[in-house]
Amino acid sequence: MTDTALVIFTPSGKRGHFALGTPVLTAARQLGVDLDSVCGGRGICSRCQISPGYGEFSKHGVTVAIDALSPWNAVEDRYKRVRGLIDGRRLGCQAQVMGDVVIDVPPESQVHKQVIRKSASDRVMVMDPATRAYYVEVAEPDMHEPTGDFERLSRALAEQDFEKSSSPKSHSSAWEKS
Ligand code: FES
Asked: Which of the residues 4, 6, 19, 164 could staple to 100 if both were Cys, CB 3.0 to 4.6 A apart?
C-alpha cells in the first residue's frame, strides 16, 4: 500500500497525488482547482462542498473505494443538522484523502461559477472613451531649429486645428489624409 493517493477533480480534470490524510480543500488549492472557502476550513461556511464519486471511472482509469475519503466527521454532522447538506455531499475542508478518488466540485462551490442571464436587458451604452485616435502630421526634427517632440506635436496640432477642441472639425477627413 502506498502513502499517496490519486485525486482527480471534475469538471476541471486537474489531478495529482497527495499524502493520505490530506484535506480535499488542501489538495484543491495545491492543484489550483476552483473550490471556494470563506471560513478558512473551520466547517462554518459550507462553501467548500464537494461530491465524491465512487466506483469505476474508466475514463480516468481509476476505481474509487467507498473508504477513499475519511469517515463523515462531527463537524460535517453538526453542519448538516443545523444548516442542511445535500446527501452525498461532503465538506472539502473536513474530508481527507484516504485513497484514489474522483471529486466533483458543484457550481455553487466554485468561486468563478458561470452566471447565465436568462433575459436580455435593454440598456443604452454611450461610448465616450477618455482617449481618441487622430491623424496628425508632425514636422521632422531639424538640427538647425532644435525642438522637442512635444513642441513639434503641439505646433502641428495648432496648425491642423486640433488644439482647443477635443475633436477635430472633420474627424473623417483627418483620417482620410492617411
Ligand atoms: S471551508 Fe468553510 S466549511 Fe469548509
From this structure: 6
Ligand 1 atom showing the smallest separation from residue 45 Cα: 2
- Separation CA 11–CA 129 (nearest Å): 39
CATH number (domain holding residue 13): 3.10.20.30
Query: Of 44, 32, 34, 33, which is closest to residue 94 (Cα–Cα)?
Result: 44
Q: Tell whether 61 is covered by a domain.
A: yes
- What lines the ligand 1 site, CB under 6 Å? 37-39, 41, 43-48, 91-93
Which three three-digit cell numbers place residue 54? 465512487
- Both 104 and 133 in one domain: the answer is no
Asked, for residue 102, whether it belongs to a domain, the answer is yes
Do residue 66 and residue 152 come from a single domain?
Answer: no
Q: Mean per-residue pLDDT for 43-54?
A: 95
Instruction: Look at residue 177 and tell me whether its pLDDT is greater than 50.
Output: no
Mean pLDDT of 91-119: 90
| Judgement on whether residues 10 and 75 belong to the same structural domain of the protein | yes
Q: Is 107 within 8 Å of 114 (Cβ atoms)?
A: yes
